[in-house]
Design a protein that fits this description.
3 domains; 8-stranded mixed β-sheet; alpha+beta; Arc Repressor Mutant, subunit A; 5-stranded mixed β-sheet; 478 residues
Length: 478
């Protein structure tokens, strides 16, 4: 549990439609005046004066005074009063906001910028938040009107958010360095869409001490998070699965996992965060070969925990004198969970797993990720997985879904390590699935679950339909 008594149980990236625009605009800048011009106007702003008084005050010659005054008269900033004294015109009066203040001259200047806006709240955000595509996340939908009329809508929102956009440093630096006075938009000359892309919004789902969901945090990039939270709620309602606690408990019995059953409150039959903490403390205190965790295995904290367990195993293999270069299999079976892989952290974990599979001289293990397909002819899902897994799809195979009812994820390094993750669907209390499981180096558990994995992968859904559908790279090929 964190210090605020909330436990993060799931992390999902939501992909919000966004666009980048080239915006050309004119703005009003309040600039100061040249030295002599400024102080002549400031002096006369105090009271109308004669040329001789101006000459005496500044220590100018008659000719210098004549040139200075003539220049200001030609600019329309000075004129003669009825008594022959020099006074300000209505134009130069507008340079001053108060008596004794420095005069500021308004200038209309042209500028432009490449700016990004989301298509829900039309918040302007940093171009650095742009990633490489629509993968590893849950895509959100916005109103068609927001997309079709985005240039017109962005023109309005750019003017409305101008000060904030300037303060965030998204506009040319010269605009904020020119003057102490804040510039403002004079007119927007053109708005042209450059490209479409997703804004990735990483969302942490948390539960309180009572096991119920807590309100999600607002997004720093957005000026109106409520709009997007509503889009997220709509999308989640469309992909929610029915409760599966009973089926998972049956899977626990098959795995021989009595420990995870202890985190369920018998009164409510739901997960109790206090029980999870107690189990983790007990494991740590007893130096257990098992470590319980909550959340996706590829989350930063859990992946670090897995790597800490894996490290001494790999060191031992590197130092081994054996001539066997196969290293054994490292099998990862993904669950049939709509939220699995919906984070760019999955690709980071896959990269790490594949990179550590071998050294210059030795193969330490052969990693294979199995992802769920409805069958060997399910090319549409296979191609979708290839897109999601990017460059790592060459290490992925399709597997007919159904291993432990699709509710359980496993990672198995032959003879060395097992990770079991249960993906709980509790739609009445939690908006997304709750992954929870354990890492173990217990030989009996490794052997037992390893046998279950092998039997399923080598088995068949029917006589001519093996569960192992082969590498995703071969999907669609005859």
């Amino acid at each position: 549990m964190s210090i605020d008594n909330k436990m993060t149980y799931q992390e999902v990236d939501f992909l919000l439609p966004a666009q980048r625009f080239n915006i050309q605009f004119s703005y009003v800048s309040q600039k100061g005046l040249p030295f002599i011009r400024e102080f002549v106007l400031r002096l006369i702003h105090l009271a109308p004066m004669s040329k001789s008084q101006i000459s005496i005050y500044f220590g100018l010659s008659r000719l210098e005074t004549e040139e200075a005054v003539s220049d200001l008269v030609q600019r329309g900033e000075l004129t003669l009063s009825e008594d022959g004294r020099i006074m300000l015109t209505s134009l130069s009066q507008g340079y001053f906001t108060d008596l004794g203040e420095t005069p500021q001259l308004s200038a209309v200047l042209d500028s432009g910028a490449s700016l990004s806006f989301d298509l829900a709240s039309f918040s302007c955000f940093s171009n650095q938040n742009i990633n490489d595509g629509w993968r590893n996340g849950v895509s959100l939908s916005v109103e068609n009107n927001n997309t079709s009329k985005s240039e017109k809508l962005v023109e309005k929102h750019f003017q409305h958010q101008f000060n904030q956009i300037l303060d965030n440093g998204f506009l040319p630096k010269s605009m904020s360095q020119e003057t102490k006075e804040r510039p403002y938009v004079y007119t927007v000359n053109a708005v042209n869409k450059l490209r479409d892309f997703p804004l990735r919004l990483t969302t942490k789902f948390k539960i309180g001490m009572d096991g119920t969901a807590v309100e999600r945090d607002d997004f720093d990039q957005l000026s109106n998070s409520e709009l997007v939270h509503n889009l997220i709620a709509t999308q989640l309602s469309e992909v929610q699965r029915p409760p599966n606690t009973l089926a998972i408990m049956q899977s626990m019995m098959l795995v021989g996992d009595e420990e995870t059953l202890k985190v369920f409150d018998p009164k409510t039959n739901s997960v109790n965060p206090r029980f999870i903490e107690d189990l983790q403390l007990l494991e740590e205190h007893n130096g257990s070969v098992r470590a319980t965790f909550v959340g996706q295995i590829y989350s930063q904290e859990n992946w670090d925990r897995l790597q800490a367990t894996l490290a001494p195993i790999l060191v031992s293999r590197i130092n081994a004198k054996s001539d066997d270069m196969s290293g054994g299999s490292f099998t990862w079976i993904a669950p049939s969970d709509p939220f699995w892989g919906k984070s760019d952290k999955l690709l980071v974990a896959l990269s790490d797993l594949i990179t550590k599979a071998s050294t210059k001289d030795k193969s330490l293990y052969k990693p294979t990720l199995y992802v769920p397909l409805s069958g060997p002819e399910d090319n549409r899902t296979a191609n979708s997985w290839k897109h999601e897994l990017k460059n790592y799809s060459s290490s992925a195979k399709g597997l007919i879904e159904g291993f432990l009812d699709g509710n359980v994820e496993v990672l198995h390094l032959a003879d060395e390590l097992i990770v079991v993750i249960y993906h709980f669907s509790l739609p009445e209390t939690l908006p997304v699935t709750m992954p929870m499981g354990f890492i173990s180096t217990d030989k009996a558990t490794i052997t037992k679950v390893g046998r279950m994995i092998r039997e399923y992968i080598d088995g068949s859904a029917s006589f001519d339909k093996p569960n192992d559908c082969g590498y995703l790279s071969n999907a669609g090929r005859k």
